[in-house]
Amino acid sequence: MKTLKTLATATLFSLTALPVLAGTMTLYKDPNCGCCAAHAEYLRENGFEVEIVETYDLATVNAEAGVPLGKQGCHTALIDGYAVSGHVPADILSRFLEEAPEAVGLSLPGMPIGAPGMGDDPDAELDVVMIGADGTVQPYPAE
């Protein structure tokens, strides 16, 4: 019985390290893009539940989600009422979801080398931006 109690306690404490999520992330990607699938796998490895939807019409997904032109990544995900465009790192996304600001969401525009799913370089400088509820764009700090 003591072993079962220890196992239950260890399981409970290990769950606290996972991101705080209220829902499944739906990630929209071009069917021919491999880096998007790699980013989805990276997010899963970091505690996110990810459902992939393949589409050739990412422009409509971005427009409906409120991601402005010029700030779009190669895929866009929706989670907890937010849009997440591009290869946004899991730690930044987790912090954003915990803060729950009034915003459209986050974006890592383009396909920056070194981002998760694009080479996974932990020293890469990634310029993540927050898209405000009013459409304004501002840098979102890495820490």
From TrEMBL:
SUPFAM superfamilies: Thioredoxin-like. Transmembrane segments: none annotated. Residues 1-22 form the signal peptide. The keyword Signal applies. The keyword tRNA processing does not apply. It holds the Pfam family DUF411. InterPro entries: DUF411 (IPR007332), Thioredoxin-like_sf (IPR036249). Keywords: Signal. This is DUF411 domain-containing protein.
